[in-house]
Amino acid sequence: MARWGMVINLAKCTRCHACVAACRIEHFLPLRVTWPRLIALEVDEGYKVDVSTYPVRCNQCKDAPCVDACPTEASYKREDGIVAIDHDKCFGCRYCIIACPYQNRTYLSRKRDPGWFPGHPKTSIEKKGEKLYPHQRGTTEKCNFCMERIDEGLPKGLKPGIDRDATPACVNTCQAKALTFGDLDDPNSNVSRLLREKSGFVLHPEYGTDPSVYYIDYKLGGNDNTAPRESQTGYVVQHLSTVYEPSKAKLAVKHERGKKAVKDNCE
Amino acid sequence: MANREVVYTTCKSCHGGCGVKVTKEDGVIVKIEGNDKSLTGGTMCAKGLSSIQHIDNPYRIKYPMKQVGKKGEGKWKRISWDEALDTVAAKMKAAIADPGPQSIAISQGTGRGYNRYTMRMARSLGTGNAITPGYVCHSPRLGLYALVTGYGRLYCDYHGWGGVFPKTQIMWAKQLEISSADSEMCYWFMNSLDYVKNLIIIDPRASAYASRANLWIQPRPGTDSALALGMMNVIMEEELWDKDFVENWTYGFEELREHVKEWTPEKVSNTCWIPKEDVITAARMWAIDTPGTIQVGSSLERQANCGHTLRAITCLMGLAGNIEAPGSMISWVLPDTGLIEDFNLELPITDEMKKNIIGGDRFKMGATRTCNPDAMVKRILEGKSPIKVWFSVGGQQIVHMANTKEVVKAIEMVDFMSHTDLFMGPMAEAADIVLPAAHWLELDDVYDMHPRFFIEAHNKVVDPPGEARSDAWIFNEVGKRVVPDKWWNDDYEMLDYQLRRGKGKDGESALTWKDFSEKLISGCYGPDQVYYKYKTDFWKEGGGFPTPSGQFEFKSQHLESLGYPGLPQFAEPGESPVSTPDLYKEYPIVMSSGYRQPFYFLGQYRNIPWLRSFMEFPTCQLHPETAKLYDVEDGDIVWIESPRGRIRQKLRTFPGIKKGVLMATANCFYPEEPAKGYHGVFISNPNVLTSNNHLDPMYGSPDLTCLLCKVYKAKDEELTESVFHTEEYGFVPSSGMQDV
Ligand code: SF4
Ligand code: SF4
Ligand code: SF4
Ligand code: SF4
To answer: In this structure, which of B6, B8, B402, B664 has its CB flanked by the most CB atoms within 10 Å?
Structure first.
């Protein structure tokens, strides 16, 4: 059985908030609810300034205090390491919110959701969302590693972290490729390799919860600039109809020919 | 069973270009995400994703409307499209008859992709008075790069198609990581970082990658040309230039060498307020570790020495031979669809039109094809308004131009203005007629923000609200009524025309909109691209550059012929600690309006709930030590004051900003504030503070990112506007448009 995990690259994150927006779309989150968050760290260490952004979301802890604290067994651990919530069992006691040392849980208030535009009818998209991803008010919510995508993808033979349709929405959208998803138990997975190569760490190991969300950080630069073969061939482009060929630039290339001509020209 | 449908299209929530996949269920959008088989690998930013909050948005403009009160009063009445278009057309015809077509101004903003329509509209009417934000964003770069490439484009080669990525990258006053602006996609840049040896950030304020870059230089705002001249001096002194390129392909090297001698690291250090080691290290990295790229930000073009700053940076590129080599600065070969801009370029600017371009006599690089907006404002205020009819689309001149008070006054004096947009904003409120525009999810069009190596299709996903129409349709309808021979029967014919040079499905016939819409992209990349064009006949028979000398010109003969110095110069900003020491005593902080957030695009999106939630209030930044000096604290609402006026923003102390410098958020108005007062444009917009008196001699660009200010805490009783009292980012515009 896999143990799903995420590796977050602090060197690359730009604080762009796309992951937050993607999660809102994926789960039709009510306006004021946000599962992933971005924490700014801005310090002047005297000899250098550190400006960082820590994207955080539920760590899907192996030893999850939120699960232990839940009196109704609404919060539970799945075999693949994901900590899930059964919203029919949750009765909103919020013990788990207090128990989570990372403050990654949100209570969805019982108050009526005013929608995106308070005082106006809900938009067609919001109304669809209420059917497609109903949120039970008066219960607790958090990031679930997009387990719906994983559960739908696996039977189709898709690999979470590799195939888009089985990969978390925030990971797919990140333009900086700061988020990587995969199986922590597989030593050859993309996440395991990254953790080895860039010495991954978890936030607040002293909490002792064994998180499945890891971080890497390093100085940018210092790389070899040789382009791998696949980037030399251009981009993979969606052509909705298959008969098209990529265009061929027509240009007379006469390398190294013109030097003398140019010299003559300017005299 | 619900009926699901997928539509592929192209995002245009910034300069645009990301491939988009939209899923609909029973006709309603249920998901928007990146298209993984596109140039941007299936990624999208918060702006693009939040575009679905434009759909069914109750604040969208849905019908043509006319102002029934005074300008800026917000009293609107719904009218029919026929009435709206006929009125605009009649005003234009009357202006053409008397005093002449030059009295019509066509203005635009940056967004939405209407560039070639505004330009064609101006040219087809016979006016050179197009108003664009170009003079403070991108035009200086294009014009000055054109002195090298002949057609104004030098891009950073982030792609690796030639076998290498850039070894040294300079981000100069630019946050490409947060927005796909100025012809590059952030996705490409961030991907190339995995292959970079030296990343150099030049920015007074720490952008996302500053503290992890190999070198981060914090120059005093407005002194960047000194830094570039100093880097060149180091390269000269240490003989690090690209010997082959300089010897065989350049002109004016010895004169440049002599010219930069005075810019010793010590002098640069004194001018830019940076350690002299920074100049030396940057110069060495740049010249030794080639190939390299310099990504220029438009903050440099919002300064009155912008022409020379850009010239100096271009010379730096040439010195290191970072022109047209794989992984350096390159001018792309276009796909088979050709230069889509020909759509407007094919209508020539006549001498008559040129003669009447406002500012053309002063700004000989900038005001040759478009008018200088600051000069126009001054002319209107002098009481002899050269503009009788103003056809405005999208842009917020009231917000982005220097000296907001003067701009508002001038715009109110224009006889007739129409404005086309998605939402009511300052420009719409100043108009007589408002036309409702469609969002990119609601229209068919060719995406071509700047001529890159590709164009893409905007495919319509849902219908626009009410009677809103695409910009292409609106332009064509107005054009048809005034100059029918220059426009089309319908907008789809116009799309076919723009694509005609491409190859259709059969490989023979002309590409049509219908085919292109399916094809989604027309591009030239990978092995199809061509490097080292100056060694081919591309620019010049026998090789070379399309310049007067046929060489890469360190010393520009073209600029000299226009009366400008041929070698790049340094000049202090109009107001600075050095140029105006007395003023500096009263206004002791150097200010820039260069602070941009990833989830806003210029003046847009403060009314999009998800995006507003990320930063509720326009924010300015000061170093904690500077803040202490002026007795202001993190979280305070502060007054920022200049000789022109004062604004309020929320203060954030930030160790990543240069001491003694204040960085204010640009382009802010409050959609939720009432029409009166132009949606709160005087509350927080930094251009209330900027001056339109000191302009770049080549481009007419004002000092928007380098001026002087003072800062002090606002008293509670001074926070009377409702924006200071809403607890949440709710926005209920009280514009009269709700009454229709
Ligand atoms: S999408 Fe990526 S870069 Fe943007 S904030 Fe999230 S993790 Fe950071
Ligand atoms: S991060 Fe918090 S909510 Fe998530 S599993 Fe760990 S303890 Fe539970
Ligand atoms: S993994 Fe899924 S649920 Fe968790 S933050 Fe990302 S998008 Fe949201
Ligand atoms: S970067 Fe620009 S084009 Fe891409 S998703 Fe964001 S707004 Fe759209």
So the answer is: B402
Contacts of A116 in chain B (CB under 8 A): 53, 609
Q: Domain of A96?
A: 4-236
Query: Looking at ligand 1, which residue's alpha carbon is closest to its atom 3?
Result: A13
Looking at the structure, tell me whether residues B371 and B323 fall in a common domain.
no
Residues B176 and B324 in one domain: yes
In the predicted structure, residue A77 carries a pLDDT above the cut 50: yes
Q: Is residue A143 part of a domain?
A: yes
Asked whether residue B246 is assigned to any structural domain, the reply reads yes
Q: What is the pLDDT of residues A185-233, one digit of tens each?
A: 999 999 999 999 999 999 999 999 999 999 999 999 999 999 999 888 8
B371 and B413 in a single domain? The answer is: yes
Same domain, yes or no, for B240 and B100? Answer: no
Q: What is the pLDDT of residues B50-108, one digit of tens each?
A: 999 999 999 999 999 999 999 999 999 999 999 999 999 999 999 999 999 999 999 99
**pLDDT band with cut points at 50, 70 and 90 for residue A68:** very high
Any idea what the Cα angle at residue B34 is, between residues B32 and B36, rounded to 5°? Answer: 140
pLDDT tens readout for residues B676-701: 999 999 999 999 999 999 999 999 99
Query: Taking each helix axis from N to C terminus, what angle separates B276-288 and B265-272, rounded to the nearest 10 degrees?
Result: 120
In a domain, B621, yes or no: yes
Q: What angle do CA B7, B9, B10 make, to 5 degrees?
A: 160
Reported ipTM: the value is: 0.95
What gap in Å lies between CA A101 and CA A113, rounded to an integer?
28
- Specify the residue with its C-alpha closest to ligand 3, atom 1: A145
Q: Does the beta carbon of A149 lie under 8 angstroms from any beta carbon of chain B?
A: no
Report helix angle B224-237 to B306-319, nearest 10: 30
Taking the C-alpha atoms of residue B176 and residue B182, their distance in angstroms, rounded to an integer, is 9
Shared domain for B431 and B313, answered yes or no, is no
Nearest Cα residue to atom 8 of ligand 4: B48
Total structural domains in chain B? 3
Atom of ligand 3 nearest to the CA of A179: 6
Are the beta carbons of A256 and B25 separated by less than 8 Å?
Answer: no
Query: In the 8-state DSSP scheme, what is residue B702?
Result: B
Residues B112 and B164 in one domain: no
Query: Is B147 touching ligand 4 by the criterion CB < 6 Å?
Result: no
Band of pLDDT at residue B152, cut at 50, 70 and 90: confident
Residue B597: strand pairing partners: none
Are residue B616 and residue B700 in the same domain, yes or no?
A: yes
In a domain, A228, yes or no: yes
Domain-located, residue A172? yes
Q: Look at the block and give the residue holding tokens 């390129």.
A: B245
Kindly report whether the global pTM for this prediction surpasses the value 0.90: yes
Among B307, B330, B353, residue at a domain's last position: B330
Percent of all residues in chain B with a pLDDT value above 70, rounded to a whole number: 98
The answer to whether A8 and A213 are in contact (CB under 8 A) is yes
Query: Residue B42 pLDDT more than 90?
Result: yes
> Do B326 and B349 have their domain in common?
no
Structural domain including B696 reads: 581-739
Beta bridge partners of B28: B25
Q: For residue A35, what is the domain's CATH number?
A: 3.30.70.20
Helix B265-272 × helix B224-237 angle, to 10°: 170
Number of domains in chain A: 1
Q: Residue B643 carries which DSSP code?
A: T
